[in-house]
Design goal:
mainly alpha, 434 Repressor (Amino-terminal Domain), 0% strand
């Protein structure tokens, strides 16, 4: 069995879901040209944000896509940590939201420790 690379995994998943290149790209909010480059291995370091969007659209575990793209994924990761990391590093996360999350986490840890 030949080794699986990111491009062939994306192309296979897209085929299984009977999605055209354009449909998958639009759903992931990227250009069809960029998805085609990803599928052909012409993009060496795709961003985690793009990979997350494609993983969601193509129903591939995010940790699998990250690993195929060359990112280090903790062994035994069930994806929850990666989803949280993606959410916290999202370009859409405002400074106010980041502060609110930090305040909530501090409160939660304090509350849990005082029980």
């Amino acid at each position: 069995m030949p080794p699986v690379d990111l491009g062939s995994r994306l192309r296979t998943a897209r085929g299984i879901r009977k999605m055209s290149l354009r449909e998958a790209a639009e759903a992931a909010k990227i250009s069809a040209a960029y998805l085609q480059k990803l599928e052909h291995g012409d993009v060496k370091s795709p961003s985690p944000h793009v990979l997350h969007a494609l993983a969601e659209v193509l129903k591939i575990p995010y940790s699998t896509v990250m690993q195929l793209a060359g990112y280090v994924v903790p062994s035994g990761s069930d994806g929850r940590v990666n989803v949280l990391a993606h959410a916290l590093s999202s370009a859409e996360l405002t400074e106010d939201e980041a502060d609110a999350l930090a305040n909530y986490l501090a409160w939660y840890r304090h509350d849990k420790a005082s029980r």
